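Sample intake sheet
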Amino acid sequence: MAFVVNCSIGIIGFGRFGRLMAHYLLPDCHVRAHDTSVRPEAIAAVGAAPAAIGEVCRSDIVILAVPISRLQGLLSAIRPHLPPECLVVDVCSVKEQPVRWMQELLPETVDILGTHPMFGPDSAADSLDGRKIVICPVRIGAKRLEKVKRYLGSKGLVLIETSAEDHDRQIAVSLALTHTIGRSLALFGAKPQVIDTEGYQRLLRILEVVENDTWQLFEDMNRYNLYAQDARQAFITAMHDIEGKLRGKDRKTCGGMKLRS
C-alpha cells in the first residue's frame, strides 16, 4: 500500500464530499485541496493544505470532486499542470461520459481511474466499513491498480470493478430512478402520518436519500447518463398502466359511472 500511504493527494472541489474524502485520507497522506468557492481557512480547518490549482495538480494522485457539468472545463484547465505518471481519479455518479472526457483531454502520460463511491457525507460520516465503491480502470497499470485496491479495501470499502457502460446501465435504475422517486415524493408532499404502515415508513426513507443532495447533482445524473431517460420512462409507463387498470376496474365496479379525474 506504499503507493497510497504517505503519498501526496490533491483534491479539486472541496464541497461536502471533498471534505469527507480529506477526512479519511489525512491519516495516511498529505492532502492539498483547491476550491475557489471555499475559503482557505475552511480547508485548513479540516486538516488539508489549501493550494493553487497548479500545486494541487503536482500531487501523486489528483481527485476531481466537482459536478459532472464542470468536469470537461476542469480537465482542460488542469492538463498543462499534470506531471507524468500522475494518477487522475474522478468520483462522478456517471462514468461513460467522464471517462471519455478524461481520455480525450488528459495527457497520455498520466494514469486514469474512474470511480463512483456509493456513499456520501451522511451515510459514511462515522465509518467506511461495508460501504461500496465502484472502480472503472481506464488507463492504469496492473500493479498500481492493485495497490489502490488494497488501500481502499483496508478502509473497509467493498470494491466493485466493472466497465463504465455497465456502471451507467445499473446506476440508471439504482440511483437515478431512486432519486426521481424521491424528488417526486417530496413534490407530492409525502410526510410522516400518525396512521401509517411499515411499508410507508420505508417509502419515506427515500426522502432521506435525496434531501441533502443538490438539484444540480440530480440533473447531472440524468442528463449525462445515457440510460437514465429510458429507466424513467419505463417507470412512468408502468405507473400509467397501473392507473389505467385501476380506473378500468373502478368503472366496472361502479356500473359504468363516470368517475371524477
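Comment: The first helix runs from residue 16 to 25. The radius of gyration is 22 Å.
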